[in-house]
Every structure is written in C-alpha cells, then in structure tokens.
Design brief:
This protein is α+β, with helices and mostly antiparallel strands. 18% of the residues lie in helices and 33% in strands. It has two domains: 3-30 and 140-261, PK beta-barrel domain-like (M1 Pyruvate Kinase, Domain 3), CATH 2.40.33.20; 34-129, no CATH class.
Length: 263
Amino acid sequence: MSATISSINYCPVKSVSFQTIDKCKIKKDIGIIGDRIFAFAKDLNLDKAHQFEKSPEERKGKWNKVLTLKNSPVLNKYNFLYKKNSLTLTLNDKEILTIDINELSERQLLSNKIIELENSLKEPIVLMKNEEFPFFDTSISNKVDFINSVSLINIQSVDDFQKKINEKIEISRFRGNICIDGIKPWEEREWIGKSIKINNISFKVEKNIPRCVAINLKPTTNDNSLNLLQSLKKNYNHFEMGIYLTALDDGEINLGDKLEITI
C-alpha cells in the first residue's frame, strides 16, 4: 500500500463552506484546527442559539436547527473564507461581505446579509462560533460531551463510482478533509477499527461515512440532477463514501504526505 495525500480541505462554516489548503494543524481529539468552528443557527432565539453554541450536549438531536445544504440547498452557490479574525462571504469567487468574527454585531450583519440574499431563509439566523467544541454532527464514539472527526476520501473509490454510473462526480461533493490516492478503490473500508499514521500523527479509523442528499448537489450550483444516494445503493448496496478518523496526537499534515497502517 502506498497512499498519499492528494488534497487537504476544511469547512470553516459547517456544511456551507469549503477551502483547499496545502497543510493544516491537527489537534488531538478535535481534528483539523479551524474546521467547522462556525455554524448558523436557525429557528432559535439568541439565548437558545448561545446555548447551542457553547454546549455540545445542547446540540444532540437538534441539528435541524442549523443551516445545512440538506435543509437549505440555496446556500450551495456561496462560500465562506476564513482568515485569522475575518470571515468572508463570497459568490462566484467575488467578495460580498467580510466581517470581524470577534464582533457580535458584525456576525449579525453577516446573518442579515444571507437573509437579504436568499428570501427563502427566515429570521432568526445566528452565526455561532466555538473553536474548542466545533460543530461536528458525527456519531463516531460513545462520548456524550463531544464528538470529533476527520473525514478521509479515497479518490479511487470516487473514480470507481463515476465509472459505474458514467457521470463525472466532483470530489468536493463529499467534503473530505483528507483525500488520498495510490490505493485500490474501496480499500479504505478495510481499515475500520485500525490505526493509521500520517507524518507521525496517529488516527483511529472509526467507521464508514453515511451520506445524505447534500451529495446530490453539484458544487456551487443548485443542480441536483444526479441522485448519487440512489446510485450508491444500486451499485454498492450502501449509502457510504469515505471513513471517519479520530486524531490521537497533535501535529501537522501536508499535501503529499504518506499514510501508513500501524495496527
């Protein structure tokens, strides 16, 4: 096996952002620093949104209270870029609004701008931020206080899938943090329960990633003409693509780093 990192990505705003980077910092028991540290609460008043923001326990079973591509596909054409203390909303790579994320009033300006741009979205919308407990909704451990994850995609599995359905499938549909190349299609599914190492950082391979209808959306468009969920089930008898990892160490990973199975 000779798996190599072909891309590194993170989503500063849960579900509705995507940034590709050359390297990233990994924090034990959290994952990629900066990943999903923001999320937009919907249908929650300010007090409830702040509870949701601060307490992972408050989030259990309430992810329908967060804007996602599943419940708000109109957001798919936008992106959010995060740099130090600023967050920028873009459309077609053009800046719409940049805010100082440390100013609550500016966070509300961004929420108001989204409602102004998309009248199908209703007040209240509140931009939340939590770096210590990011907005992961994955169920990969028995911890009740906080659940973390790093997602890994084997691009050969995606390639096998697109050959099966004779359609181009953009890797970014699956929003993988780490994309790898150099192994057989679907080989990553054999790693469940094992440990892997990247640049001396150990990760536990937790489970396969179940997918939702958001993967049907072509990136940066409202085109959902491909029913990829249905195609996964038809061709592989499951709705999964990629695996979840838990970071066991602090460190840094880089584009081109090798991956090895350790246990």
